[in-house]
Each structure stands twice: as structure tokens, then as C-alpha cells.
UniProtKB/TrEMBL annotation:
It is an enzyme of class 1 (oxidoreductase). The keyword Oxidoreductase applies. Residues 1-290 form the Biopterin-dependent aromatic amino acid hydroxylase family profile domain. Keywords: Iron, Metal-binding, Monooxygenase, Oxidoreductase, Phenylalanine catabolism. One of its GO terms (biological process) is L-phenylalanine catabolic process. It comes from Stakelama sediminis. This is Phenylalanine-4-hydroxylase. Fe cation binds at residues 130, 135, 176. Its EC number is 1.14.16.1.
Length: 290
């Protein structure tokens, strides 16, 4: 999931003008399907009681437990009926403008390859397990579906303002690594967490990371790491509130204001933060000490 590096620069041969490619479902080997099934079984056991109700409902209504790598056409048909979204295949990390344009039109781009059996726990580029298992269930939630479309439109505007860095942090701390406070307690919904065997427990249960109530401006100032577990998780009160703030925020003045404010170092807690867990940062410090 290292997004800073391997973004494709030129339209690959065989890709359409919108950078999509056929999923080519028939080309997956039995080993590929087995990898999906292994990853699926591992996560399915961990997620009840940890993942958001919306996420678990999406997994169920989209029938993602069916064995083997999902066929995007079949998946899109189900998703289209629920929220009007589709899943399209791309050959890797596509340019930002392409990524946002698909999103603004309710098309979620997904890698069509799957990690090798010796890479079950870590890989740099988003594969079909991260993209489909991690992201797509949330798109069956009508409110989250609207949020991601609004984000896509916001991304296109951020490109014009040169404020992509700030907006990308919003994506990171919600879509990829977000937590939500539900009646039953804290739950995970970020794709990078729900698709990770170790981070799905770390994000909720480990004393190391900070867990801070979501504030749009604060999040947009906060650095993040792409190489290891997060040191901060931001907690939304619900998806309605996330959508409301995203739609109601006038981003042009916000970007202008952000340009005058310093970035917030990764693990720093501010006096005005609404803190749920003041993390020990023991995990990150042990890693840094080698
Ligand atoms: N392309 N396929 C793909 N998947 C991503 O998550 C992605 C991308 N291109 C750009 C991008 N993400 C990020 O740079 C934006 O979130 C800012
Ligand atoms: Fe992702």
C-alpha cells in the first residue's frame, strides 16, 4: 500500500483510455483462488465484534464469502443495485486525476492481481484482496457510498488547488485506516485495517497508538506512515457525520487556512484533541530502537 512510489506514468498497453483493463477472471490459477480463500477465512474469523456493522453487512449482502476471487462483473451487478457503484480493474496505481475521476462517477478501481502465497501479510501495492475485501463492502452502505463519491469530486478540486497532500490525509485516516464509534463500542472500517490480520487487532486493542475523535482540519494537518501500523487512529461518530462534514465543508478557504498552519507530527497530541486513548507509542518506539 505504499502509494508514494509506484504510480503508473503512462497508459499501459491493452488499457482503455480511462486506464481500465479487463479483469480476465479466467486467468486466475487455483493457487490464486486459494490465496483469496486463505486470506478470507483468516479475516472472517477476526472481524465479527471488531468491524463496523456496515462493513459486516456489506460482506454479507455482496456474497464475498463465496469461494475464490470475486468476478468483478457479478460483484458490480450486486453493488449497482444497492448503491449504484461498480468495481473496475486497473493495472496498478493509476494517476491521481484518473483515480478521482472514477470515484466521482461511482466506479471503484481495483487491482486485478493477487499477492503470492509468501506475501500473505505484507505487500506494497494494493492487490485484489486489499481492494475488494478491504474497500468494497463499505460501498454497499448508502451513506459511505455517497461519501466516497464526494471524496472523488473533492480530489479533482484539490488537484486544482495544489492541496492533494491535505486531502489525501483525509482518505488515509478515514477510508484506509478509520475507526467508528458504534453503540457496541469502537469498530474498524478502514480498508487497510479490515484486510490486515495483525492491524485489525492492533488498531482496536493495542495500548500503543493514539485514538482521537475525528476533526476534519486536524486530520488534514496530520502526517501518516505508510510502512507500518499507524500511530494515530481517528474515530468518527458515524458515517452520516463524515458525509455531512465532507459535503458541507467549503474546501477552498480550508486549504488556504491549512497552508498557514504547520503539519502535525505523527504521534503528537494537541491540547484541543478529544482523546479516547492516549497511546503509549511503545510499539513504534521499540521499532525505532531496532
Ligand atoms: N490508484 N489503483 C489505485 N488505487 C489507489 O488507491 C490509488 C491510485 N492512484 C492514486 C491514489 N490512490 C492516491 O494517490 C490518492 O489517494 C491520493
Ligand atoms: Fe486502499
Amino acid at each position: 500500500m505504499n502509494k508514494e512510489t509506484h504510480v503508473l506514468e503512462r497508459l499501459p498497453e491493452g488499457a482503455a483510455q480511462d486506464w481500465t483493463i479487463p479483469q480476465d477472471w479466467d486467468r486466475y490459477s487455483q493457487e490464486d483462488h486459494n490465496t483469496w480463500d486463505t486470506l478470507f477465512a483468516r479475516q472472517a474469523k477476526l472481524l465479527p465484534g471488531r468491524a463496523s456493522e456496515s462493513y459486516l453487512r456489506g460482506l454479507d449482502v455482496l456474497k464475498l464469502s463465496k469461494p475464490g476471487i470475486p468476478d468483478f462483473e457479478e460483484l458490480s451487478e450486486r453493488l449497482m443495485k444497492l448503491t449504484g457503484w461498480q468495481v473496475v480493474a486497473v493495472p496498478g496505481l493509476v494517476p491521481d486525476a484518473v483515480f478521482f475521476d472514477h470515484m466521482a462517477n461511482r466506479r471503484f478501481v481495483a487491482g486485478n492481481f493477487i499477492r503470492r502465497p509468501d506475501q500473505l501479510d505484507y505487500l506494497q501495492e494494493p492487490d485484489v484482496f486489499h481492494d475488494v475485501f478491504g474497500h468494497v463492502p463499505m460501498l454497499a452502505d448508502p451513506v459511505f457510498a455517497d461519501y466516497l463519491e464526494a471524496y472523488g469530486r473533492g480530489g479533482l478540486r484539490a488537484l486544482e488547488h495544489g492541496s492533494l497532500k491535505q486531502l489525501a490525509r483525509l482518505y488515509w485516516y478515514t477510508v484506509e485506516f478509520g475507526l467508528v464509534e458504534e453503540d457496541a463500542g469502537l469498530r474498524i472500517y478502514g480498508s487497510g485495517i479490515v484486510s490486515s490480520y495483525s492491524e485489525s487487532r492492533f488498531a482496536l486493542e493495542d495500548p500503543s497508538p493514539n485514538r482521537i475523535r475525528f476533526d476534519m482540519k486536524r486530520v488534514m494537518r496530520t502526517d501518516y506512515r505508510i510502512d507500518d501500523f499507524q500511530q494515530n487512529y481517528f474515530v468518527i461518530p458515524g458515517f452520516e457525520e463524515l458525509l455531512r462534514q465532507t459535503v458541507e465543508t467549503d474546501f477552498a478557504p480550508l486549504y488556504a487556512e491549512l497552508a498557514t498552519l504547520p503539519d502535525i507530527p505523527i504521534a503528537e497530541i494537541l491540547p484541543e484533541d478529544d482523546v479516547i486513548t492516549h497511546g503509549t507509542q511503545a510499539y513504534a518506539e521499540a521499532k525505532a530502537a531496532g
